[in-house]
Amino acid sequence: VNTIDDRWRTVTGEIANSKWADDKVVIFTQFVEGLKPSYIPVEFRGEDRKLHPKQDLMNSKGPEDLCDLVQWSDLIIFDYLTANLDRVVNNMFNKQWNPNMMNTPAHNLERTSNGRLIFLDNESGLFHGYRLLDKYASYHRTLLDSLCVFRNSTARAIERLHHSGSVGEELNKMFSQNEELYNHIPRLPQKNAKILQQRIADVYEQIQTCKKQYV
Prior knowledge:
mainly alpha
C-alpha cells in the first residue's frame, strides 16, 4: 500500500476506512462477474460418498455432468493437499449441528456462467489447515478415499511431484519468480513442505489403488 502512488490515490478514503497502513502488503482477489453458488454433488453428500468410474455412472450422466464431476475431483485433491478446511470440509464438520448442511451451497466455492468452478479464499491451506490436521484429517481422508475419478493431467502432475520429492523447492522457486513482493512475504516452512509432500504421496497411493481396481 502506498497512498501517494498514482495507483492508490483515487481510493485513499477506502484505504483509511480499511485501516491499511502504508508499506504493508495486502492481498487482492480478482472480481469475477455473475458468479453463482455451487452445490456439492450427490456423489459426495452422504456417508456412502463415492465417485468411481462405474458403468452406471457413465450411463446416468451426460458429458456436461461428467466434466463437472472431474472439476470436483480436482477440488477434492487440491483441498486435500493444502488441508483446506474452509470449503467442503466446512460443510461436513457443521453437519453435526445442521443435518441439511451437505444440501446447502459449498463454502468458498462459486460457479461461473459457463460452469467453471472458482475456488475462493484458499488462505487456510498449507499453513492454518496443517496446524489443525488432528481435528480435521478424518474429513479430508474420507473425501480422498471416496475418489477414483481423476483428470489425466492432475494424475500426471501428482505422479511427477511424488517421484521428484521436491514440491517445497518448486513452490518457493515459482513464488520468487512470479511474485514481485516475494521478499516481503513469509516462505513455506520446511515442516509444511514435508507435510505437503506426504499428502502428495497419499493422493498418489489413492490413484494407484484405483488403477489396480479399474484399469
